[in-house]
Amino acid sequence: MAAPLGACIEAAGVAMPTQCFGTMNTWDMEAIGGALDAGYRHFDLAMLYGNHALLGAFFEERFKADASLGRSDVFLTTKIWTRHMRDPRAACEECLRDLRTDYLDCLLLHMPFGLMPNYMTAPDLALDLRAAWAALEALQAEGKVRSIGVSNFEVKHLEVLLAACDVRPAVNQIERHPCCQQGALVAYCQKERIALSAYNPLHKRRPELVDSPALAAIAAKRGKTPTQIALKWCHQTGVFPIPMSRNHAAENFDLLSYELDAADLAAVAALDNNARDYNAGFTHYGRLSHESYAYQRALETAHDYLTFAIASAMPRPPLSKLGSLWALGIAVSLGVAEHVLTKLLRALRLVK
């Protein structure tokens, strides 16, 4: 088992705070102010979230108003979205401009694939992932970013990258919580000395984690909340979590004042059932949360073939209105097919 994390880890030579606050769906900057007041100095951002400009303006004003807090005191991680994978340099410049800073602390590729800029879901089949990574390496060499990494990369993607890169990824951000522990991927990254961070550490879309009797028992024993126990488990097993709650920032920040014992860790480990909220790297509509990994992969494969068919059949840019409606129809059809197939397999008791 990995050693428990401290307040910072060294990721490819850069000190990265392990108490990190997520900014997805955050439009009220009072939440960011509350996180700063609670002690957070690492913030996880993304182009996809659409709030870079708000965050940039907030941090600029906060640095002016608070003489004890400057840009060097805050660690900003952001992610290049799939539609910008062909030109990471332009994406980085956009991030710098919107965030009102001259450098990023960590820049990640959000997904191990690209999407065509003028299509809703069509995969960019000509994209060379290694070329996108080489562009990040160049940005780091120029000082525009201090460290570079990836998000939602599985072992097969990391193997391709590690075989070709000059600079190894500092971090891989993945979905991880007690109901989706991703043991093989975690072990691989730790073996390759790639730091790990966890989005969705509280399995927010389904209540079985925070309502778990196992977590409740540990929380009662430790004088904590079930949420705190889930976050502490993640942190103590070598993956720093990225919670987002504005109402519980202070208690979520408390990751270093106590430890879970072997019995606690075993009880949490028993909750794993591969229940993913986000099938992030493959299916772009909604989520899959099934115990049957083979079923999940079969749906991914079917989806990839269908999106390839859309990309091949649609008129190339500019995308026509008819093409947009066609793509929307395919998206809805895929979602309905997934729902019907899931209900069928559940009826047959092939998945839960």
UniProtKB/TrEMBL annotation:
<dbReference type="Pfam" id="PF00248">
    <property type="entry name" value="Aldo_ket_red"/>
</dbReference>
<dbReference type="InterPro" id="IPR020471">
    <property type="entry name" value="AKR"/>
</dbReference>
<feature type="domain" description="NADP-dependent oxidoreductase">
    <location>
        <begin position="30"/>
        <end position="272"/>
    </location>
</feature>
<protein>
    <submittedName>
        <fullName>Aldo-keto reductase</fullName>
    </submittedName>
</protein>
<dbReference type="InterPro" id="IPR023210">
    <property type="entry name" value="NADP_OxRdtase_dom"/>
</dbReference>
<dbReference type="InterPro" id="IPR018170">
    <property type="entry name" value="Aldo/ket_reductase_CS"/>
</dbReference>
<dbReference type="InterPro" id="IPR036812">
    <property type="entry name" value="NAD(P)_OxRdtase_dom_sf"/>
</dbReference>
